[in-house]
Structure formats: structure tokens, C-alpha cells
Amino acid sequence: MISLTTILHFVAPLDWSLLSSELDFVYLDPVLASHLETQADLLIGKSLLSFVHPEEQATARADLAEALEQRTMHGSVTR
């Protein structure tokens, strides 16, 4: 599985996406979609946590929830 760190480093610096409150991808910006080519549609509706090792999903969910509660877009939620 790909780690949350890898996902955030791939998505955050260059591209962005919108996630639902359940952490499912609901929108990919056009640049990210073009980078992913035919695989972009596969992300829509898929949980971000599906890319996190099952043993780390609870921690990742808690870290992301904390970041959302702070309502800031800076810092890191990776371990």
C-alpha cells in the first residue's frame, strides 16, 4: 500500500482535490486529473484511507480530523 505521506506529498505540492467528510475523493483539479490520465476517474468515490496501511488508518483518520478542526491549511498531518 502507498503511505499517507506519499499521497500527501504527491497531491499537496502540485495539485489539489476535494474530499468528502468521509474522506472520499469527490473532485480532482484538472492538473491532477491530467497527471493521472485514465486513472483519475478511479479515484472519485474512493477513500483517501484506502491508500493507508490498515494498521495506520485510525491514526491517519484522527490526524486528518484534527487538521480539519484547526481549519488551517498549513503544517503537516503526516507521521
Blueprint (SSEs and pairs):
Layout: H1 4-11, E1 17-19, E2 25-28, H2 30-36, H3 40-43, H4 57-70
Antiparallel strand pairs: 1-2
Number of DSSP strands? 2
The rounded distance between the terminal residues' Cα atoms is 16 Å
The residue-averaged pLDDT reads: 76
Order of helices and strands: HEEHHH
Q: Per DSSP, what share of the residues sits in E-state strands of 2 or more residues?
A: 5-15%
The spatial strand order of the largest sheet comes to 1-2
Q: If helices are DSSP runs of H or I spanning 4 or more residues, what is the number of helices?
A: 4
Q: Summarize the amount of helix as a percent range.
A: 40-55%
Structural class: mainly alpha
* Largest sheet, strands/sense/barrel: 2 strands, antiparallel
Unreliable segments (pLDDT under 50, ≥5 consecutive)? Answer: 75-79
- The value of Rg in angstroms is 12 Å
Quaternary: single chain
Backbone shape: globular
Q: Can you walk me through this structure?
A:
This protein has 79 residues and is mainly alpha-helical. The protein has helices spanning 4-11, 30-36, 40-43, 57-70; strands spanning 17-19, 25-28. The chain has a two-stranded antiparallel ribbon with strand order 1-2. It starts with a helix and ends in a 9-residue tail after the last helix. Residues 75-79 have low confidence and may be disordered.
